[in-house]
Amino acid sequence: MTPRYDVIVIGASVNGLAAAALLAEAGAEVVLVERDVMPPEPHGPLHALDPLLVERLKLAKRGLRFRARDLPVAALARGAPPLMLNRNVHSAARALAALGEADARAWVPFRRELFAEGRRLRRWWWHAHGGGR
Questions:
Q1: What is the pTM assigned to this prediction?
Q2: Does residue 73 contact residue 46 with C-beta atoms inside 8 Å?
């Protein structure tokens, strides 16, 4: 007997894997096909995987591990060394001091305010409002 599938997902990139997993979780018979032996690496310098998807699909229990939790933000300008801003506020302030003391002094209060605003918006960000508004 020939196998029957409700859905064929083509491509085992992060999106293909997520689509196949969510469809299977919803009860669909899914087949995932990939041209290569291994799924492709994400393109570009930064790739984000939605934490809600990681949690919902129990990816950590299935072996997903992250190598670097915190990547610094790099600002590049022609003829200047890269400006690296990492989680350590003092290290980032020292890096900003190369641009100017005022920037270095403003960094800690700016970062504190930015993270406080992020914490206030967290509930809104991760939970859809009624009706998708």
A1: 0.43
A2: no
